[in-house]
């Protein structure tokens, strides 16, 4: 599989049914009656299609990846160009465009094809990282003219790509109407990625970064997600993702609105420090988000248009997310749209043809025999050729950029940018200035004009901020390029803070952050903090997937104040009505000036509530996150307690410790609990405040798995095919199934409720992800495909000790491992000598051998009803 998050909650993910898609399409595919879907290319041409992109003129570029997410041998990937000459929905011709391993994202713009892929050493055959590259086909023969040109190098963690494959690496790419390429980064993160200007960037964890098409100006857009595979970008530059996050009890899908500079919190803030993050808009249960697209094409039915479309590999479903404006953000309602087995990606061309790729059971390491591409069009669709923009007149390009097709607008915009002449500039400006045109058209014109004229656009963009309709977008464009940010006036942004539109206010705060002028700190400090800015109660999980429009503006203001390094202004504000926002921002200010200033504020204050908040802030500053060097990764089930993953002391730590101890002494025995709780919550590890850890012991049943699997009942005496055919006809009794779940040893490794201690793969949601047939096959063939995080791990440790099991918890200091008998071992990280991931499932084959068909059907029915 591709990155896919490998996020299924079950212990295996089986192939989607027993019948081949192309032989039985009516069984495997479900789509709305308003659409016509045709089989475009099969596994003989497009096995294991990890990603695709479509040229405006309809040529389909497919990234074939027979390495998958867990494969490690190079030479199994390439980009294919597929052509439908007669426009009947079936491929007529294919060309090998370029050879690349692990293609993860594709963008087609004119003769240029941008590709994100894994790189390998020719000598060692080992992965060396991931690059964003561009190929060019100037002679139009369908093949790249020469070698790739790197735009960004080392944009993922090479160490873990070598050890694991690309399951948490960097993935999909998409261009916005603003001309930036947006890149989805998995939580491998990256260290010292370098763009064409030589700029280096490091990111611990996942999020979205962006870069100009020439490979310059690389920067972080948002941070704090687990496994974003792709982004959907609407005409107003709203960015949406369907990513997932490890809650410790399965991998839940989240739908998020990404707001520039936002922190989304994975893994250290999203459970216990949710007051500090931008929450997702929805937690949708188990799944694996993959490709994404914002559909905005005029010939699509209105009910399926102007919406983010999000693929979910785990659920084999393309979803529509209907978003509704909510202040500076949105709320959403998702609905099933098109069902395809292990769908991976989607894209649309200039005539409204939607193409979708499906993995179709190709396995985590890819397959030469599985996978395909389909085409979907509205029933009343008729082919209309999209013009060759290279040959198009200015008049034609003007028509295209004014159209109600997002594909046409982006294509025309980029062609005008390439032409870079007086006619192109005049066209873009005229479109942006014409108040009779639709807003999305004017935005396209404005961003095109800004790309063409760069620094010279500033005066005009300032004028556009006076246009109420265009104000939000003009502010974004003004602050969009840091290369000449020092020339941009501050006044439009300060004026925007007073606007009645919360979206304009948000754009103003983000813009002030990017302008980088510390003198605006006092203005930003006036941003109101809502009552929802409340830390979760001890032992509870915060609302990390509940829309909270009120938190957006103060969150953005805090990110700006931190980036502006406004320590003096923040310390001064602690004494004012803006103390809450100031102390929130000071949590991230690891400077001795901040520490000493907080202590001084504490000593001068008589407000006990304020003094307590200062102590909380000092506790947060006691440690900081270690600088990321890509030698480690937190794994698939990381410690999510927070506020740091690998915390280290720094120069301010002794000052804080001394002060806290002094204050604790003054508080006496009665007040000590505050410091004990602060020590535990902030994980300061100050011995004087330590509380003896109480480990709850539960007596679990001892299961003799060897005895179970050696019994030969009806299942053990039959072929898998016969068993599957038999139970397909039997409903079974879920109450009996629950008892069998216990007696067959399932309980040793699986929990059914999040209130239980998490063990192996969580079974409480399996029915929402897998159908009965899939569940049955996964029981019978546990090694067919091992769920992420639950491969057997062999650990050798000091003292000649060896452990084998799966990891249930991992922090910077320890690993907690559970073996097949249900025994739990805690191993200090410093004691681990070696660690190896095995290629087999922890679950032995044959655990269902002793069952009758009826009993297995009952177990399967019981599991299929687990949909919490």
TrEMBL record:
Keywords, in A-Z order: Heme, Iron, Metal-binding
GO molecular function, one term: metal ion binding
Domain Cytochrome c: 732-867
Database matches in InterPro entries: 6-blade_b-propeller_TolB-like, ARM-like, ARM-type_fold, Cyt_c-like_dom, Cyt_c-like_dom_sf, DUF7133, Haem-bd_dom_put, Quinoprot_gluc/sorb_DH_b-prop
NCBIfam families: CxxCH_TIGR02603
Protein name: C-type cytochrome
Protein species of origin: Pedobacter alluvionis
């Amino acid at each position: 599989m591709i990155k896919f998050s490998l996020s299924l909650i079950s212990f295996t993910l089986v192939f989607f049914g027993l019948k081949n898609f192309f032989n039985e399409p009516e069984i495997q595919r479900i789509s709305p009656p308003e659409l016509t879907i045709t089989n475009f290319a099969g596994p003989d041409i497009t096995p294991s299609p990890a990603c695709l992109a479509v040229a405006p003129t309809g040529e389909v570029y497919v990234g074939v990846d027979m390495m998958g997410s867990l494969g490690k041998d190079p030479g199994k990937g390439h980009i294919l160009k597929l052509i439908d000459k007669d426009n009947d929905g079936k491929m007529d011709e294919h060309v090998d465009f370029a050879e690349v391993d692990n293609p993860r994202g594709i963008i087609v713009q004119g003769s240029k094809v941008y590709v994100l892929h894994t790189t390998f050493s020719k000598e060692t055959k080992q992965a060396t990282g991931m690059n964003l590259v561009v190929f060019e086909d100037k002679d139009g023969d369908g093949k790249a003219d020469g070698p790739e040109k790197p735009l960004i190098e080392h944009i993922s963690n090479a160490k873990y790509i070598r050890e694991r494959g690309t399951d948490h690496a960097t993935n999909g790419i998409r261009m916005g109407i603003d001309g930036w390429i947006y890149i989805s980064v998995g939580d491998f993160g990256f260290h010292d990625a370098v763009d064409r200007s030589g700029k280096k960037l490091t990111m611990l964890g996942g999020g979205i970064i962006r870069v100009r098409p020439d490979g310059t100006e690389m920067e972080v857009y948002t941070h704090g997600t687990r496994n974003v595979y792709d982004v959907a970008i609407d005409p107003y530059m709203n960015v949406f993702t369907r990513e997932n996050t490890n809650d410790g009890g399965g991998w839940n899908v989240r739908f998020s609105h990404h707001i520039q500079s936002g922190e989304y919190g994975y893994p250290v803030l999203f459970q216990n420090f949710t007051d500090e993050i931008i929450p997702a808009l929805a937690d949708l249960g188990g799944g694996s988000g993959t490709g994404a697209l914002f559909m905005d094409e005029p010939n699509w039915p209105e009910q399926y248009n102007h919406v983010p479309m999000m693929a979910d590999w785990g659920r084999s479903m393309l979803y529509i997310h209907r978003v509704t404006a909510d202040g500076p953000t949105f709320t959403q309602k998702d609905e099933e749209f098109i069902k395809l087995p292990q769908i991976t990606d989607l894209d649309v061309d200039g005539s409204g043809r939607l193409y979708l790729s499906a993995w179709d059971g190709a396995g985590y390491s890819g397959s030469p025999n599985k996978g395909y591409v389909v085409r979907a069009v509205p029933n009343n669709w008729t082919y209309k050729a999209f013009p060759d923009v290279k040959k198009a007149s200015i008049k034609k390009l003007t028509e295209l950029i004014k159209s109600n097709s997002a594909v046409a607008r982006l294509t025309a915009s980029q062609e005008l940018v390439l032409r870079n002449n007086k006619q192109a500039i005049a066209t873009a400006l005229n479109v942006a200035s014409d108040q009779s045109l639709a807003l999305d058209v004017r935005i396209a014109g404005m961003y095109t004009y800004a790309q063409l004229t760069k620094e010279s656009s500033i005066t005009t963009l300032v004028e556009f901020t006076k246009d109420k309709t265009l104000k939000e977008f003009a502010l974004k464009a003004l602050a969009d390029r840091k290369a000449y940010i020092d020339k941009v006036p501050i006044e439009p942004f300060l004026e925007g803070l007073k606007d009645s539109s919360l979206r304009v206010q948000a754009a103003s705060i983000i813009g002030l952050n990017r302008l980088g002028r510390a003198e605006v700190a006092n203005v930003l400090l006036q941003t109101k903090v809502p009552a929802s800015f409340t830390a979760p109660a001890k032992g509870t999980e915060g609302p990390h997937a509940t829309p909270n429009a009120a938190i957006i503006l103060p969150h953005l203001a805090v990110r700006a104040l931190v980036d502006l390094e406004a320590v003096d202004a923040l310390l001064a504000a602690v004494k004012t009505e803006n103390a809450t926002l100031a102390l929130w921002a000071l949590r991230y200010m690891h400077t001795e000036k901040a520490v000493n200033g907080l202590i001084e504020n504490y000593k001068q204050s008589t407000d006990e509530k304020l003094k307590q908040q200062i102590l909380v802030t000092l506790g947060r500053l006691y440690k900081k996150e270690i600088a990321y060097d890509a030698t480690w990764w937190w794994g698939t089930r990381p410690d999510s307690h927070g506020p740091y993953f690998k915390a280290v002391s720094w120069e301010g730590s002794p000052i804080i410790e001394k002060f806290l101890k002094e204050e604790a002494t003054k508080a006496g025995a009665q007040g000590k609990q505050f410091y004990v709780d602060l020590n535990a919550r902030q994980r300061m590890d100050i011995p004087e405040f330590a509380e003896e850890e109480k480990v709850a012991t539960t007596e679990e049943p001892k299961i003799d798995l060897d005895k179970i699997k050696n019994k030969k009942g009806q299942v053990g005496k039959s072929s898998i095919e016969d068993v599957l055919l038999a139970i397909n006809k039997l409903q079974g009794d879920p109450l009996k199934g629950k008892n069998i779940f216990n007696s067959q040893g399932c309980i040793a490794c699986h929990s059914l409720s999040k209130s239980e201690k998490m063990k192996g793969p969580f079974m409480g949601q399996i029915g929402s992800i897998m159908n009965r047939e899939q569940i049955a096959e996964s029981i019978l063939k546990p090694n067919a495909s091992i769920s992420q995080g639950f491969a057997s791990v062999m650990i050798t440790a000091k003292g000649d000790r060896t452990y084998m099991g799966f990891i249930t918890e991992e922090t910077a200091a320890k690993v907690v491992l559970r073996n097949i008998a249900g025994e739990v071992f805690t191993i200090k990280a410093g004691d681990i000598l070696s660690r190896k991931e095995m290629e087999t499932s922890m679950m032995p084959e044959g655990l269902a051998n002793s069952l009758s068909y009826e009993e297995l059907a009952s177990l399967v029915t019981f599991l299929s009803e687990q949909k919490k």
